[in-house]
Amino acid sequence: MKRIHIMMMSLLLLAGCAQGQSKDYAPAKLPAVKPGEAVATFAGGCFWALEEGMNQLKGVREVISGYAGGTVKNPTYEQVGTDRTGHAESVQVYYDPKVISYSQLLDAFFAGHDPTTLNRQGPDVGRDYRSVAFYRTPEEKAEIQAAIKRTNESKHYANPVVTEVTPLTVFYPAENYHQNYFALNPDQPYIRSVSLPKVEKLRKAMAGHLKNNTSLTMNE
């Protein structure tokens, strides 16, 4: 990803050279919402890990990586990376609330990233990496606030949650090459060193709600 330590950036550049010819820069298409289905939107750092983590949950049909919280229409990855559009790297989750509740998705969200670091996730720095829970209804807003209170009271993190609680205005899908990136690029250095630990952290917290209970292991 961008704006990271020099050594990590060098590794990413080497990995990117091998994939540059096959990147599909067209924006992904958003799936139609099925009857009885609900949609949730979160931002928690690089969307590669959060997309994969949410996809691991029972009741989740599809997760799309994209951009939300900004002012520029149809932004590109490069534009968002300048930190001038206001967007955060986000995921949109299509799920069955009869199988997994919004409250449980929030538990997964707060477990799958560090919600206590302002405008930063590990080596990634900038408002495009900020932690945001976007709500569509007053009920969702109340559930987010309850989840923040629950997370703070658990003392799981040494510092208080700084996650923004923001109404969703519009979600723009990211380019096709970002979709399902974690699963398609298991040997990419950033995936192995940064994304994988975050996904495993989410899986551990949501052990009773996983589609597959087998631990993830990247190829050596």
Automatic annotation (TrEMBL):
GO molecular function ontology, one term from the record: peptide-methionine (S)-S-oxide reductase activity
Catalytic residues in the record: C46
Keyword Protease: no
Pfam (any one): PMSR
Entry-linked SUPFAM superfamilies: Peptide methionine sulfoxide reductase
Key words, A-Z: Oxidoreductase, Signal
Residue ranges constituting the Peptide methionine sulphoxide reductase MsrA domain according to the UniProt record: 40-190
Residues annotated as signal peptide: 1-20
EC number: 1.8.4.11
Catalytic activity: [thioredoxin]-disulfide + L-methionine + H2O = L-methionine (S)-S-oxide + [thioredoxin]-dithiol; L-methionyl-[protein] + [thioredoxin]-disulfide + H2O = L-methionyl-(S)-S-oxide-[protein] + [thioredoxin]-dithiol
PROSITE patterns attached to this UniProt entry: PROKAR_LIPOPROTEIN
InterPro entries tied to this protein: Met_Sox_Rdtase_MsrA_dom (IPR002569), Met_Sox_Rdtase_MsrA_sf (IPR036509)
Family of the protein in this entry: Belongs to the MsrA Met sulfoxide reductase family.
Function: Has an important function as a repair enzyme for proteins that have been inactivated by oxidation. Catalyzes the reversible oxidation-reduction of methionine sulfoxide in proteins to methionine.
Protein name: Peptide methionine sulfoxide reductase MsrA
Organism annotation: Spirosoma validum
Gene field: msrA
